[in-house]
Structure formats: C-alpha cells, structure tokens
Amino acid sequence: RFQDEIIVIDHSTTIEEAASHSGGYSGKGGDLLYRWGNPQNYDRGNNSNHILGDQHSINWIPEGYPGEGNFILFNNSANEAVEFIPPVNEDGFYTIEDGQPFGPDDIIWDSPYYSTAMQGGAFRLPNGNTLITDCDSADIEEITENGSVVWSYSQPGNNANIARAQKYAIDYFDQIDNGIVGDINGDNILNILDIVSLVNLVLSGNYDVTGDINQDGFLNILDIVSLVNLILVN
C-alpha cells in the first residue's frame, strides 16, 4: 500500500524455493512475478506511470465474470475504483519488455468519485456491476459500468466504517449443508478451529464450498478474513 503498487508472488513455492530464483509453478522461486502502480520503485518509468496511491482491496475478477482475469481495486489517492488488464502471455505468465515498466500504461475502467481516506473496496459482480465500499462514510453501492447506482446501503452511527463488502447470491445458504456459513469442521460452532481448518484447506489447494465464504469460486486469504469477521460478530 505505502509503495503505491500491487505485487504478485508465487504461493506454490516451498520455503527453500522462495529463497531462490527457481521453483514453484512459475519457475521463478521467490522473485516478484508482477508489480504495477508505481514503477519508479524499481527505477523504471516516470511520474505518468505512477497511477496508484494508498490502494486497497486488490483482487482478480473471477472466471466467468465480465472482465475475468483483470485486476480491480480501490485507488484511494484518486478516490475511485479502477480496473486494469495485466500483460500475460499465452501460457498465463506476466510479461515485461527490457528496460520498460510492467504494463499496462493505463486503466480500462474507473468508477465515479468516492472519497475515503482509509481502506475501501471494489468487487466485480456476475452481472457486470461493481460493488464499491466507501469506508469513511460506511456506504456500500452497487454501480453499473457507466456509474449508475442500482443499490446502496449506509451503516448508521457516527463512528461507523465499512472496509469492504461482498454480495452473496440468493441461493448462497442453500449450498451450505449444515446451514452455518463458515462451520468448516461441521460442529455447529464458529470458532478458531474453523479458522485452522480453513487455513489448511487454503494451503492444500483443495476446494470446499463451506470454506468459500465470499463465494468467488476460490479459497484464499479473503475467505479467512471473512471467516474471522463472522466469528467476531457472532
């Protein structure tokens, strides 16, 4: 965040591979696979390439969603959500030209103005709309591609904040056999044991719908954070 860029690394490496330049799915060990937002951090580009600032909530747009594979995030310095297309080759690896910064040169979509000094979220929805979170104002809005607001929610209270939000499908709870979202171990209680079980699921690479808390089709750190929040409010 404070370097004004996003970074992609290879999570498939072992500890030994991560300390080297080989190994893992990418074959590059612990090397950075991709970085974008402020190439002056690695002595390339200029001020015109410095696009991000204090950004939050970077995520890949899921497969099957409009813009699938693109990155979307909340860019706090510009007070907007942005979407951009990372440069990848036919094998799915990030590419960069010698002496040049990582592309792209610019974003492909940005939201209307949202002013929040801290945090904020942006998540693409299956219908192509985007769910935006204005943390300071504790507002959530679903907007269309052209910025029209089709749904909104404001958390009451003088000190209310909403860092980010996810929208669940109407049939979300129908997919949970035991009826308790986040009850990974099936004991009908949400606690630290479910977090441990979910962490193990994420590390194993196996998919289980009970662990897909945000219902994006993936098991990752976002699900762990969502589960922690579920436990804290219950």
TrEMBL record:
Residues 177-234 form the Dockerin domain. Gene3D superfamilies: Dockerin domain. Signal peptide: none annotated. One of its GO terms (biological process) is polysaccharide catabolic process. This is Dockerin domain-containing protein. It comes from marine metagenome.
